[in-house]
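Example 3.
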Amino acid sequence: DQQVKQNSPSLSVQEGRISILNCDYTNSMFDYFLWYKKYPAEGPTFLISISSIKDKNEDGRFTVFLNKSAKHLSLHIVPSQPGDSAVYFCAASAGSSNTGKLIFGQGTTLQVKP
Amino acid sequence: GAGVSQSPRYKVTKRGQDVALRCDPISGHVSLYWYRQALGQGPEFLTYFNYEAQQDKSGLPNDRFSAERPEGSISTLTIQRTEQRDSAMYRCASSLAQYQGAGNEQFFGPGTRLTVL
């Protein structure tokens, strides 16, 4: 069973516009969520995170929104830049269970066109 | 180098052979994680360590897979009697501590691409 789902395999946006990447989860025990970005031939790199006690976290051009009732989170990138083109993974953990285990979604490939 | 390193980067082996994959975490990082990533999928948790203690091995697919971190630093993931279905990218990550929270994110290595013929 896929506990973390990214239903859009790919997304294409124009430079300067907003990119919105979506993620859904099923496990109500998840209380910490992260977004990772991955370039080809590299490992995933941490981008931004959010605790379940918040509904929004912002870091420069990147904002993550969490809707606990819908078990849904999204990553907004504004404005999008060509260098943002990468695979984005959503991940979740049940931090209160004192485990470091992360559960990842399948990833969404973002292409930002100049 | 300050990042997580893994070796070898690529490993091709024949079915039935044993393989050992190495992970060198960021210096000082207490927690070390192993993941497996199939093409077009996200990383899938295998096991993790705090210092030398293996805390969770619930993701290891079967008893052909084992991992160790004897001195609390470098870790080795061993796959015995490899099968074609074991072919995947194997990723290692490390973090300062075990808890999930701001400032304690997992840093990933470049991975080892394993191909079993």
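The mean pLDDT of chain B is 93. The radius of gyration of chain B is 13 Å.
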